[in-house]
Amino acid sequence: MTGPGNHTDYPLLLWPAAASHAATHVDYLISAFTAVTLLLTVPIFIAITYFALVYRAGRKVERGHTSDRNVKIEMSWMLIPFFLTLGFFAWGAQIFDTAKHPPGNAMTIQGIGRQWMWKFEHPGGQAEINDLHVPTGQAIVINMISQDVIHSLYLPAFRVQMETLPGRYTQVWFQADRPGTYRMYCSEYCGTDHSVMNGQIYVMTPGDYEHWLNSAGSSISLAGGGKRLFASYGCTGCHGAASTVRAPSLAGLFGRPVPLASGGTLVTDKNYVRDKILNPDHNLIAGYKQVMPSFNGVIPEDEMIQLMAYIETMQEVQP
Amino acid sequence: MSPSDAVLRDPGTPRITIDRPADYLHAEHTLRSWFFTTDHKRIALLYLASITGFFVLGAVAAGLIRLSLLVPNGQIFTNDTYNKLFTMHGVIMIWFFLIPSIPATFGNFLIPLMIGAKDLAFPKLNLLSWYIFMGGSLFAVVVLIVGGVDTGWTFYAPFSTTYSNTYVIPALLGVIVVGFSSILTGLNFVVTIHKMRCPGMTWFRMPIFVWTHYAVSLIFLLGTPVITMALILLVMERAFHIGVFDPRLGGDPVLFEHLFWFYSHPAVYIMVLPGMGVITELVAAFSQKRVFGYKFVAYASIGLASITFLVWGHHMFVNGQSQLASTVFSFLSFAVAVPSAVKVYNWTATIHKGAIRLDTPMLYAMGYIGLFVLGGLTGLFLATLAVDAHLHDTYFVVAHFHYIMVGGTMLAFLGGLHYWWPKFTGRMYPEAWGRVGAFLIFIGFNVTFFPQFILGYLGMPRRYHEYPPEFQLLNVLSSAGSTILAVGYLFPMVYLIWSLWFGKRAPANPWQAKGLEWTTTSPPPPHNFLRTPVVDYEPYDYAIKAREVG
């Protein structure tokens, strides 16, 4: 088992733990790139040292037949390394593409960054601070937002990080393969206690994870909490099924194209819905009069997460 | 001992008639003649003294940072003090040392000499640039030391606009003011290079040093206004709550990252290009050989200055920038490798079959090539999307840019300083001490920064005051290296000052180098040349000489 607790056993640590196949893949890329780099540079270092010694001023060596330009040579040492390295551009872009597209069956965990702690909320409503428990063999998406400044969630064991922005959701995903305890950091400088805004990520077998979920306890799931908030903030008054106010129905909202009053359409996502709740006069929807009050400064981020979870379930209930 | 020497050593010596016109250093002696001079050479020395002072302050901050990182639990300084220290180090080193370093000193001194001009095109504007620079930088440095700022040199919003409780606005104002000095210097160089070349000095007879400064001046002119505007917007948001970057005020924090890096990536080339120019001069002079592929190297300078405006997005692969944008920026960043590779391979080819002398400037040049290659190639790692997702904002990045800026710019600065020291001062530096210093700096630098590549790969984030205990050994190694580096820096500081009084008198051309600056006396007369030079030969006209030696 590799974990921060064990790292101290090795005074000189030279290779980071890899907790996912994707992390191992990144390591292959870096190793191969390092090899090519050495192939391109070691000859230069040897040549410079060799020339400097052999062609010392005053030494009698053959210096004839030098030219001060040779277009063929110049083009080849310009273009060959370029095309060689382009392979690594493509390889890196391909891994990055995978890292941007989580599989459809991924489980979403909500994350909130704030000066100077991380809060995570599991779908069942279990919340944890500066710790994150995840099961192996399951793709995990962390959907996160910041309450204040820019943070960044960095999980070196998975070779991924993503900035946690205020005012906008960002996502990072990974699929853990090796149970263990790994480090988790904030990698974007965020003020006084930036360097202690970190914690542990506990990768567990699915059985252990189930066990942990049960022991962590939660009276209500995220969506359940969101349903309560939906009522208590008065959303039901207009968006509810029995409402008499002409407001768009929220059922099946996510991923749906919405026609805008200004022309054009916009595909809804969490960022759009969040922005609509805080700033209803943004992106007016065609066919509706703007009568919704702004909830800017009223709904904190963790309640917003619950509301989103609830609105997402409305999609499932009403096809 | 020459007559003027005797006068300097013993004021009691009766005046001796000097058989040549006084050089620019001895033409006048009053303070006024320094602070109100319009001589580009004296202004260059004013810059040299100022940026050396800033370098010392920035280096002290770096030393304190390395001291703090000896222990993982951060008990040497408080977290706020540590944050202020790295901000001080970054702001001073980047804005007040590295950006002006080579252009404002060597560029100022040498461009007119290298193109056979009497001075820059606008001598008074040149002096004004220095006053603007000093006004802004001294103000900001006092703020950084007395009050402290904890935003990092990057000033990311909304931390800098809403959440930091330190003196952000005064520091920003200082940096904004200094930007105008860059713009004026760039303008002066561009006009000078276009209009002041002596008869026969065609574009393709100019030394590469002048080409790289032309490229840098374009970045000064086109890039600096953008950072000025971005920083003014920061001040407006912080002071008047005008929402630009803070989402609570309706702004977008990623917008600041775009504006910031649109300038600050090209700024890397403000630091790198002049260094490349210096190294090209050194490699040619100490190989006694024409620069290989002169035109390619000249074009590569302009190419770098152009492409550098198209790669800023590689600082934002992990911040919510669209995947398409990130992929395009990654590709363009790989393209930067082309002109950089041209330079490195051409230097190597220049050394081939030369008549090489390993004097101090050449040692710095060879160190530079090695460190710059390592810094550049680790840059390619960071330009690779999936690799950056791991290494972004870790110590790998810290090591990478120190290889470029210290291993690159700083070594070029020191190499150039030794090479042109006889021209600047009329004195030789002590060669043996110079070589020892160069070795110490090279070794100290690598011991300091190579472990940081490993730390970053292991996942240690940058700007961390406290860190996990498993990283301590590599951090201690890095701190140990920084003490060697510090001793290395002390060497030139001490012996160069010593040489001002006790160094050997320098001949006009101690290195048998080509280039118009070596055709005039050391130090040059106030107007550089007694007679306007006429050029009827190609640059780096070493070929014949090399054959004779061989």
Folded structure, characterized:
The complex is a heterodimer of chains A (319) and B (550). Chain A is α+β, with helices and mostly antiparallel strands. Chain A is 38% helix and 20% strand. Chain A is built from 8 helices and 12 strands. Chain A has a 5-stranded mixed β-sheet with strand order 3-2-1-5-8, with helices on one face. In chain A, strand 6 and strand 7 form a beta hairpin. In chain A, helix 2 packs antiparallel against helix 3 and helix 5 packs across helix 8. Chain A is elongated and about 100 Å long. The two termini of chain A are 45 Å apart. The N terminus of chain A is likely disordered. With 550 residues, chain B is mainly α. In chain B, helix 3 runs parallel beside helix 5, helix 3 runs antiparallel to helix 16 and helix 4 packs antiparallel against helix 5. Chain B is globular, with a radius of gyration of 23 Å. The C terminus of chain B is likely disordered. Chains A and B meet through helix 2, helix 3, strand 7 and strand 9 of A and helix 4, helix 6, helix 9, helix 10 and helix 11 of B.
Key phrases:
heterodimer; A: 319 residues; alpha+beta; five-stranded mixed β-sheet; 8 helices; 38% helix; elongated; disordered N terminus; B: 550 residues; mainly alpha; 68% helix; globular; disordered C terminus
